[in-house]
Amino acid sequence: MLAEIQCLPNPPGTNNDQYLHINNAIDVIVSSGLTYEVGALGTTIQGTSDEIWNICRLVHESTINSGSDSVVTVIKIAETHDNNSDFTIESLVGDYRE
Questions:
Q1: Which residue, 1, 14, 16, 27, is the most exposed by fewest CB within 10 angstroms?
Q2: Per DSSP, what are the bridge partners of residue 7?
Q3: Residue 54: is it exposed, middle or buried by C-beta count within 10 angstroms (0-12/13-18/19+)?
Protein backbone atom coordinates (compact mmCIF):
# COMPACT_ATOMS: atom_id res chain seq x y z
CA MET A 1 0.00 0.00 0.00
CA LEU A 2 1.12 3.55 -0.67
CA ALA A 3 -0.07 6.72 1.01
CA GLU A 4 0.70 10.34 0.41
CA ILE A 5 0.15 12.46 3.49
CA GLN A 6 0.12 16.23 3.74
CA CYS A 7 -0.31 17.84 7.16
CA LEU A 8 -1.30 21.48 7.29
CA PRO A 9 -0.83 22.51 10.92
CA ASN A 10 -1.81 25.99 12.00
CA PRO A 11 0.66 27.47 12.64
CA PRO A 12 3.24 25.29 10.84
CA GLY A 13 5.83 26.08 13.51
CA THR A 14 6.99 28.62 16.04
CA ASN A 15 8.89 31.90 15.89
CA ASN A 16 12.11 29.99 16.63
CA ASP A 17 11.42 27.11 14.22
CA GLN A 18 9.19 28.03 11.29
CA TYR A 19 8.36 24.38 10.42
CA LEU A 20 8.52 22.72 13.86
CA HIS A 21 5.18 20.89 13.64
CA ILE A 22 5.78 19.72 10.07
CA ASN A 23 9.28 18.53 10.94
CA ASN A 24 7.87 16.59 13.89
CA ALA A 25 5.45 14.86 11.53
CA ILE A 26 8.29 13.92 9.18
CA ASP A 27 10.32 12.65 12.15
CA VAL A 28 7.47 10.23 12.97
CA ILE A 29 7.65 8.86 9.43
CA VAL A 30 11.44 8.57 9.51
CA SER A 31 11.39 6.74 12.85
CA SER A 32 8.77 4.26 11.57
CA GLY A 33 11.32 2.43 9.45
CA LEU A 34 8.95 2.42 6.48
CA THR A 35 10.07 3.35 2.98
CA TYR A 36 9.16 6.99 2.35
CA GLU A 37 9.91 9.94 0.11
CA VAL A 38 9.50 13.53 1.25
CA GLY A 39 8.12 15.79 -1.47
CA ALA A 40 7.51 19.51 -1.67
CA LEU A 41 3.79 19.17 -0.92
CA GLY A 42 3.55 15.88 0.94
CA THR A 43 5.30 12.66 1.87
CA THR A 44 4.73 9.29 0.22
CA ILE A 45 4.95 6.24 2.49
CA GLN A 46 5.07 2.57 1.54
CA GLY A 47 4.03 -0.33 3.77
CA THR A 48 1.32 -2.80 4.68
CA SER A 49 -2.21 -1.52 5.16
CA ASP A 50 -1.92 -1.80 8.95
CA GLU A 51 1.39 0.10 8.91
CA ILE A 52 0.05 2.83 6.63
CA TRP A 53 -3.17 3.46 8.56
CA ASN A 54 -1.26 3.51 11.84
CA ILE A 55 1.48 5.86 10.66
CA CYS A 56 -1.02 8.26 9.09
CA ARG A 57 -2.78 8.59 12.44
CA LEU A 58 0.51 9.06 14.30
CA VAL A 59 1.71 11.68 11.82
CA HIS A 60 -1.55 13.63 12.06
CA GLU A 61 -1.54 13.50 15.86
CA SER A 62 2.12 14.52 16.06
CA THR A 63 1.34 18.01 14.78
CA ILE A 64 -1.22 18.61 17.53
CA ASN A 65 1.02 17.00 20.14
CA SER A 66 3.89 19.29 19.16
CA GLY A 67 1.79 22.39 19.84
CA SER A 68 -0.08 23.42 16.71
CA ASP A 69 -3.49 24.98 17.32
CA SER A 70 -5.16 22.86 14.64
CA VAL A 71 -4.34 20.64 11.69
CA VAL A 72 -5.92 19.57 8.43
CA THR A 73 -4.42 16.36 7.03
CA VAL A 74 -4.89 15.24 3.44
CA ILE A 75 -4.23 11.55 2.76
CA LYS A 76 -4.24 9.73 -0.58
CA ILE A 77 -4.17 5.92 -0.49
CA ALA A 78 -3.22 3.56 -3.33
CA GLU A 79 -3.53 -0.19 -3.03
CA THR A 80 -3.71 -3.11 -5.42
CA HIS A 81 -6.31 -5.84 -5.10
CA ASP A 82 -3.66 -8.55 -4.75
CA ASN A 83 -1.17 -6.55 -2.65
CA ASN A 84 1.23 -6.58 -5.58
CA SER A 85 4.79 -6.23 -4.26
CA ASP A 86 5.80 -4.52 -7.53
CA PHE A 87 3.51 -1.58 -6.67
CA THR A 88 6.09 0.64 -4.98
CA ILE A 89 7.28 4.22 -4.86
CA GLU A 90 10.23 3.20 -7.04
CA SER A 91 8.06 1.46 -9.63
CA LEU A 92 5.85 4.53 -9.99
CA VAL A 93 8.42 7.35 -10.05
CA GLY A 94 11.83 5.74 -10.47
CA ASP A 95 11.97 6.41 -14.21
CA TYR A 96 11.52 10.14 -13.59
CA ARG A 97 14.36 10.64 -11.17
CA GLU A 98 17.60 12.22 -12.31
A1: 16
A2: 73
A3: middle
**Percent composition of the chain: helix, strand, coil (DSSP 3-state, to 5):** 40, 25, 35
Nearest to 52 by CA among 34, 38, 70, 64: 34
Question: What region, left, alpha or beta, does residue 69 occupy, with left being phi > 0 and alpha being psi -120 to 50 degrees?
Answer: alpha
Q: All domains of the chain, ordered by start, with CATH?
A: 2-96 (3.30.70.930)
Q: What is the CA radius of gyration of the chain?
A: 14
Q: Give the β-pairing of 43-46 and 35-38.
A: antiparallel
Task: Give the pLDDT confidence of 34-80 residue by residue, as tens digits.
Answer: 999 999 999 999 999 999 999 999 999 999 999 999 999 999 999 98
